[in-house]
UniProtKB/TrEMBL annotation:
The lineage of its organism: Bacteria, Pseudomonadati, Pseudomonadota, Alphaproteobacteria, Hyphomicrobiales. This is Class I SAM-dependent methyltransferase. Residues 47-133 form the Methyltransferase domain. Keywords: Methyltransferase, Transferase. GO terms for biological process: methylation. It comes from the Bacteria. GO terms for molecular function: methyltransferase activity.
Amino acid sequence: MSADAASNIIALYQTYAADFDRSRSRELVEKPWLDRFLVYLPPKASVLNIGCGAGEPIARYCIENGHEVTGIDASPALISLCRARFPGHRWLVRDMRDMRLDSRFDGLIAWHSLFHLMPGDQQIVLQTCMRLAAEEAVLMFTAGPDRLETLGRFCGQPLYHASLAFEEYRVILAGGGFQIIAHAIDDQSCGGATVYLARRSGG
């Protein structure tokens, strides 16, 4: 059942793209974490928003802070909304498990997106992220509180989530030269998110 739900994520977000966009909060409870992320970026930084959805509020906040955003999402309907809202930025229909991009990025963010992948796929995506990261880049993503797989519901359909344990993420990131610089489990000030913020050393 979990494998079926995991394989249906792309179709789910494509079918219910308008519902997702309407339900996605614009209150920016993520702001404290986004500010932590942005403080490490140079002016006019290149930011890769992985699983960007319809571009609000995460991509919008990065854009409003003067950065150049490349957003990827596997739902063409959601990418169409991004292109309409932010035509001066780059929006690509991509499965995050197959991110063939020709750029390197100062910041990479996968907010409430990476955790829709099965654990093995998460490792692959994180390794790809690190290959796309510039020197001294920052990477931020959300996960679960520990190693687990669980099913939620969205528009009446099963919604898959998975997570690795903290130590597993730490080892994967260290393999690409990244160190976790901030971490919170079930941060209630941020909608109960479990957040990882990591930075690559330039040394």
